[in-house]
Queue: 2 jobs
Job 1
Amino acid sequence: MSWITAMPAFVFGLAAGSFLNVVIYRLPLGRSVVRPRSACPACGRTLRWFENVPVLSFVLLRGRCRSCGAAISPRYPVVELLGGFFALLALWIRGGDPVGAAFVYTFLMALLAVAMIDWDHRIIPDEISLPLLAAGLAWSLVNPALGPLSSVAGALAGGGSLWLVGAAYRRLRGVEGMGGGDVKLMAMIGAWLGLGLVLPVIVLASFFGSLYGVSLMRRGGDGRTEVAFGSFLAPAAGVCLVCGQAILGWYLGRFGI
Ligand SMILES: [Zn+2]
């Protein structure tokens, strides 16, 4: 990847990250992601164009609203930078295949949105998981390394296994442990990554979740805090997208398959 393709891709990614901030903030509230223009959440004043430049505005305004002085969350520039970084990552993964890079980028950005929204609201919007499930199945038709059979099987195994976990939890504890949103998210992830990576994603997400559980206990909690599993599934899926083949090779090799 030369800098001639990397630079515009990164700048495009920053702008897409800026749009993703709007999606993360508004979608769970049921508000339009197109209108009205972005405003300061504290004073409600509509932002001027120069206050809306990804990353740069945050740095120049020193993280504060120009009129009311309210602090702007550093999450906004972080999501913008991730948007830029994911654009480079997608190009790197798919090499000289622009259609593939666009697919991979869409998947990564959807995972980022899901992780943030689930963290904030404990919900995973169907508006993301269902269209992306369809997109994952479409991706399998143009990606011979995945293939439609593995994609469909991955969606069924992914959604099915989390549905079973939820049903078992409900039986044993009498409470909802796994939401329907998690089931649909894992079906979506299975469609994108294929059958072989369903188990690695769930194992890795549980590992991330347990790391978080451990850190909660260190802070004096009882470790049983209900966590948003989607916020761990999404980064696990991202990791498996990038190094899934290496993970698969490792664990198949271990068992001599
Ligand atoms: Zn303000």
Job 2
Amino acid sequence: MSETMEMATSSQQMERTAQSEGTPRILIIDDESAIRESLDTLLTLEGFTVSMAGDGTAGLELVSRNEYDLLLLDLALPGESGIDLLPRITAIQPNLPVIMITAYGTMGNVVDAIRAGAENFVQKPWDNEKLLADIRTAIARHRAEEEVVQLKRTLKQRYNFENIVGKSDPMLRLFDVVAQIAPSRSTVLLQGESGTGKELIAKAIHANSPRRDKPFVAVNTGAVPSELLESTLFGHVKGAFTSAISAKKGLFEVANGGTLFLDEIGTMGMDMQAKILRVLQDRRFMHLGGVSEIQVDVRIVAATNVNLQEAVREGKFREDLFYRLNVICLELPPLRARREDIPLLASHFLRFYAEENGTEPRSLSPEALRILMDYEWPGNVRELENAMERGVVLSTSSTITPNLLPPQLTGSTYSSSLLDHKPDASLFDLMEEIERRIISDRLERCHSNQTEAAEYFKIPLSTLNQKIKRLNIEVKKRGRD
Ligand SMILES: Nc1ncnc2c1ncn2[C@@H]1O[C@H](COP(=O)(O)OP(=O)(O)OP(=O)(O)O)[C@@H](O)[C@H]1O
Ligand SMILES: [Mg+2]
């Protein structure tokens, strides 16, 4: 309990004066001093900074003077009820998460409170652990959302990027390079695994260039068969081939003045590669079946998820074309190499899909977030986006728990595949096998760093060593790190 508490005269307002930066700040508005004090003790011990008010007027005053991370609001305040007060408070601090404190048997009012924007409610007498967990979830969600909003604002102001999220070093470096190269006409090659955001960056390059008011045209050069791709890109004259019943413009012409995005360029056939090379050299080409050359002003952005240099070595990609494309090469890092972007992206997609589905905002439970942080994300940002969309659609409450995550994330494979393979094993053997797999898997992820693995499992290093010996786990030699 604090000694720094001071009584405010007219409005029963009590505020802790020694507020530390960074620790979450919670405001309690409740007319019962016993409730305020027991919440104060609980929350202070857990490291929160607590402010308190005994009625709505005092509460409003505090909200207008300070920023809070969470409000615990009594539903049954004397005079103006908590429900009436709520909109006045959120008018001052719109995204403040609010947990209602209710007496037993006032469920009808709780529904009204949730409708009025309360995030959750706690019933007296409350369970401390559950209350703390709810508070932490609400604060974490609030902070993540604020961070996303802030970050998007910065990215929008600084780079004019729409809907791109990232705060990891490699992404910030990438944003800088994109902003720097966007205004030129130089050809850009985007390399990165599937789902890392190549098309998004291609669009950002276009949107930040003087060409932004001209077309951005995307073509998947890997998916269109060669014969078709040629007429798609260069157009054709009437009668150029049997089905050419009328003349048609090609995408190089459609994109004139703007940007042509050649996606999946790594899987384009050799014959097309030769034809593309010619256009890249002088921006001139002919319609299929045509006789005169056409000149266009098109910026080329190409993307590939295969390593083009390797493809060149294997003779699958023309070296001269590679050098034409590789004027400015940007690497999009896989999501597993920039894990600090995961909570941001998750929050960004949760908000997006909640809006799109007309549902309330959703947040991840701490356990669900931990699973996202641990997963390898072979499908990168797209896989995360799909997982969040699925979570929003399947969830019936405001929290997304691990059971709402796709099965490949929750690793249910441990037990199910094991039972199929070892039908006669005893429970003890199965448990050992599961333990063995979990430990091996973790060691692999930690590059055989046993200290890191022991910390992850929250066990002493010596215990981990014993388990490794007992379970006969092979520890790979650590490379130089
Ligand atoms: N940094 C990011 N911020 C927000 N959304 C992102 C980000 N990166 C990717 N996305 C989203 O993830 C999805 C996949 O991105 P995109 O289509 O650009 O990837 P890609 O690299 O072109 O994938 P592929 O190689 O499979 O075509 C898109 O819906 C995109 O909006
Ligand atoms: Mg793509």
